[in-house]
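Closing statement on the histidyl-adenosine monophosphate sub-project.
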Amino acid sequence: MKWQAVKGTHDVLPEQQAAWRQLLAAVELELGRAGARELSTPVFEYSEVFEKSVGESADLVVQKEMYTFEDRGGRRLTLRPEFTAGVLRAFIEHGMHTLPTPVKLWSAGPLFRAENVQRGRYRQFHQVNLEIIGLSQALADAEAIDLLYRTLRACGLTRVRMRVGSVGDPDDRAAYNAYLRRELEPLRARLSEASRERLRLNPMRVLDSKAEQDAAVLEGLKRPIDFLGGAARAHLDEVLERLRDWDVPFEIDPGIVRGLDYYRRTAFEAHYEGIGSQSALGGGGRYDGLIESLGGPPLPAVGWAMGSERVLDAMEQEQAVAAPPDRPVLFLVPLDEDAVNEVAALAVRLRRAHRVEHAYAPRNPGKGLRDADRRGAVYAGLRGASERAGDEVQLKHLGSGEQTRVRVAELERFLQEVS
Ligand code: HAM
């Protein structure tokens, strides 16, 4: 049996680590400058935490996408499919509502959804998540959107397109859902199976269908934005005004709908062309009422998450990864048995300041140089009987072929000068 990673999961190989680090460095810098602090939560929670928050018509529930299991104590647990629920559970549990308002929390790590796998859609994937808790003003929505845009820019992406809309207040949503039911029930038979199910549970989600047969049916229908009440409309207008003020480029998306049920008013997404059909790099919105429904104080909040794998895919498209050189400055080659321990001791000492590797058994010079070359070393350093006599190392610059002898006592200074 030859084992493979489970479908929809991935290894992050050594050569991919620099890109991940670059992404997280950009996140830490941008979100940190805005006053957000990092929160890490467990990878699993009581199932109820997610069931209560994502909503019963969310895809996660309807399409049974959550990895839920019973542990030995008979507890029902779920691998987190998103951050928001766990972050709010922690916020409530640790009484963070007593902190100065707003509380801005960011998190990063793996999430789990039993989805149909395709490019950009995996079963274990990663998000960077931000929540801004305690503000009901449109200013907070605009700040969240600006921070998503800014963070993606800081990752080196220049072709990000922000889409902003509103799903309205609960009454507006109810009115829109009633309208959709009225319009679509007679046309039920022409809808895809997934859309028929959505029509029953959460009609608004039909708009998110990518099925071709649905497109014709949906054409000409009014959009959620047409059903906004006065308060939600004014809120959206103010969000848009702030974004224009701050030069955040965006498009208004009259039909924006999100896969989770908890959104109120503002909803937004960041899209990117060139990474396949799963083009949403991130998304989020306002979710007033959710904290209270999880047993916390009645605090308003807004937040987003971006999908790290999709962002990395986009960074690759734009060649935005500035990988630091992944190679030793010196590869030491022992030419005889005595030199094995000598080069090892030398490497241990030089590693205080430099990346130095060595062979672990005697090599002839030809093979030693090939070893150094395979590791991409800048210099090979040979050590045998003649070098021992002068307490030296024979250095060869693998790029130019230039050779020089350097005394062991001088080696540290030499490496300092060349690196
Ligand atoms: P979401 O739209 O479900 O929102 O996910 C946010 C982003 O995570 C997506 O835009 C996508 O980039 C990425 N993503 C989602 N599912 C997958 C997957 N299966 N494979 C790869 N990437 C994926 C949320 O999760 C909300 N909790 C965001 C939020 C925070 N709203 C308020 N606060």
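The mean pLDDT is 95. With this model delivered, the sub-project is considered complete and its resources will be redirected to Aim 3.
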